[in-house]
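Notes from the 1:1 (GR / supervisor)

We went over the backlog. Supervisor wanted to see one worked example end to end before approving the batch request, so GR pasted a single chain during the call. The sequence is below; no edits were made to it. Supervisor asked that the structure be written out right there so they could see what the output format looks like.
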Amino acid sequence: MSVVATTMKYSRPRESAWGESGLALASEDQSTDLETALLACAKGDRHGLRLIFDLEGGRLVAVAQRILRRRELAEEVVQEAFIRIWTHAHQFAPGRGSARGWIYAVVRNRALNMLRDGKREDLVSDDRLEMLQDAEQLDEIMAAWHRLDRNNRLKECLGGLEEVRRRGILMAYVGGFTHGEIAGKLKLPLGTAKSWIRRGLLSLRECMA
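Structure output shown during the call:
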């Protein structure tokens, strides 16, 4: 039996020794655990994969199911994602992003790839696929803000901005979108998008000063 199959032999993740999963979502300690687990996977330690499954398995299935709308396909995607996590953990670079973001990106990409697969044409139209891709990108961008420590000054200052201006700034500086792309996704004239982002940055600098 493969390492991944052994790791995922339970239909639901066990409660881990690192705390209740519901409370751990925003826990800095858990983020450290996930990073350590990925580095362990890169060294061939299957306990790292077991820890990732214990901490995030249930939520990963939920993310995949939100995209695919079918539980059995979501579980299949997560199984495939864990194989990729196990075999590609060496590609994770802590300095380039969080372990959680890397893990969830693997699952989302596998789910979206399934939707693109010709064998799954019954699942989604091209328009819905594009909409899902945009929604997943925006969710990840906003999650970067929510993952900041609640006492972090940047989080507080971003929270004081109007939602559309906050989203525009995050899309530009976290998501890497151009002003034109931001205008299109937020359904704003290009000049308005540029102006809101500029004013939002000014407000952010004043707040951080």
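Supervisor's comment: The chain is about 70% helix and 0% strand.
Batch request approved.
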